[in-house]
Amino acid sequence: MDAQEKKQLLLDLRYLRMTQIWAENSYCKRRQVGALLVKDKMIISDGYNGTPAGFENVCEEEGGDRSKPYVLHAEANAITKVARSNNSSDGATLYVTTSPCMECSKLIIQAGIRRIVFGEYYRMHDGVDLLCRAGIEIVHLWQHGDQCEPVAITSDNSESHYQEVAKELEVAR
Ligand SMILES: [Zn+2]
Question: What pLDDT, on a 0 to 100 scale, did the predictor assign at position 30?
Fold first, then answer.
């Protein structure tokens, strides 16, 4: 890793830490997700998972084991928030605590986001596969205890890396 890459990794780790703090805003009980959009070293938008503006701050259906169908994911909230601003997501980097799902991945591609950094996997990796196909740069900041290993994900290693992460989680359980 050269000096430039080391500097980028430090920045990536700090922004990811910010998304983890931002996720604490979420009222969702099952999983709190935070996202930031960064462009030209500026945070241009932010989001966390939750219901649309004006709706009650409850994410779960009665009984609590399912999310309401109108809950927006953190990425969707960050992208729609920038849509209401004078900023553009074109060419931006998305930092997100959890890897994007299929629905959010479609929005990410169309929003012109060029790079994604995430900290942990969603229960499926089909969204990540789609982002790979779109040629978006994806970095998984893989945490092993207090060590972090940045893994660049491409169509070639997407499946095998996901399996490797799942195996590690299985062993830790
Ligand atoms: Zn999503």
Answer: 87
Backbone angles phi, psi at 72, to 5 degrees: -95, 140
75 tagged catalytic: yes
User: Which regions of the chain are under pLDDT 50?
Assistant: none
Q: Which helix (H) or strand (E) holds 108?
A: helix 102-110
Which one of 75, 103, 159, 170 is the catalytic residue?
Answer: 75
**CA angle 72-91-156, nearest 5°?**
80
Distance 49 CA to ligand 1 centre (A): 9
The strand order across the sheet containing 93-98 reads 42-48, 34-39, 93-98, 115-120, 137-144, 147-153
Report which residue type is found at 27. Y
Secondary structure element (H or E) that encloses residue 87, with its range = none
132 close to 109: Cβ distance less than 8 angstroms: no
Beta bridge partners, 28, equal: none
